[in-house]
Write a structure and sequence with these properties.
469 residues; alpha/beta; four-stranded parallel sheet; 7% strand; globular
Length: 469
Amino acid sequence: MSFMDKDFLLNTPAAKKLFHDYAEKCPIIDYHCHISPKEIYENLHYESITQVWLGGDHYKWRLMRCAGVPEEYITGKNTSAHDKFMKWAEVVGKAIGNPLYHWSHLELRRFFGYDGVLNAKTAEEVWNLCNEKLHRDDFGVRDLINMSNVETICTTDDPIDDLNWHEKIAADKSFKTKVIPAWRPDKAMNIEKITWPEYIAQLEKVSGVKIDSFANLKKAISKRMDYFGERGCKLSDHGVNDVTCNPASSEKEIEDIFSSRLSGKTLDDVALDKFKTEFMLFVASEYNKRNWVMQIHYGCRRDNNIGMFNKLGPDTGFDCVNTFAPSTGVAKFLGEVQNRNSLPKTILYSLNGNDNSAIDTICGCFQADVIPGVSKIQHGSAWWFEDHFEGMTAHFKSLASLGYLAGFIGMLTDSRSFLSYPRHEYFRRILCRLFGQWVEDGFYPEDYETLGEIVQNISYNNAKKYFNF
């Protein structure tokens, strides 16, 4: 079998047919990512392949550190782009079994037409080829998006953002891809952070609401949701350490907690849980009113290397999987929201693949007939440390065994790079490989009409319906 040919990962006739006839040409809906709307509007052109590949990709930084590369070649300010790329090529050329090996080569093929293998021997050739294309007028970030057949992008945006770049993109009729804001209110909820009072002052300014009480915090949040909704927002995202459900006993109790923190006092763990519970119950009800989707990401322990965090800041490659699984809290929280008749469409993600069964069975407790054929409560795509061959396959199998795989909304990039869209292709190939194997083993009939519909729905149609794009 040839390396990464047209049938890469497709090991049965059924897998090949499902991918090439049904999945391959589906548009991409990237409903969760961290790319910059400003760079899309300005159609940023990159100076070099190092800038686009290594400029902020902590996946690659982490792998380079694992290979013993000195930090100066990873995040150093005085090392040339050329030398950093040479080190990356040397590392990735030996990264057997790592998804970065596959992603990097898919990106080289799809964007740069390079069918060879990247390693220390070919690094100079690849450097020159990629940079030559990146310097062309038709190789800005909009061109990369168009090459990838991306229909919709949802960025990640703070409630205080003015969404100016989204407005400008929407007004530019020459660009066909929809770029939609997504609501990320973590800074408003993280009341324990030293920066919280400063953030609340900023939220007060942009909302026009004096935030001197929890009731007024809710008013400010609601006003900013209206602002986001007017600019096309259809979903939220919460990155949490865990999911808790400990409602306050009364309005007075939550107001006392809020006032204590606003006056500069430190809250104990019980008070923190009650504040975060009340915050999440409120925003969940608001999402439900607006028909927004609520995304909850958990299972990550962040910034473990304190020295490097102090030097480089967050999102630089020093996070890990958290083995704490808040299954009880998740189930209790969804049950409380459901009991209040305010449960929105919800997507649950854990960074810990061992949580698959828990999430799939929790989802099954709260499903409803909202969208025909599509699950209301979703087990989100294998994420971050799990979006590799084994992680995706395990996710598919768990969802198929304990839920309804045909009702799944599919892949997202969760990326900061405009070259990450081939991850959708990687996802679709793995999906078709699994389906093809099930056909080969007699687990499912060779019914391509039904199988093809399922593949296209997971690749594209389900997400389009679910988010109402």
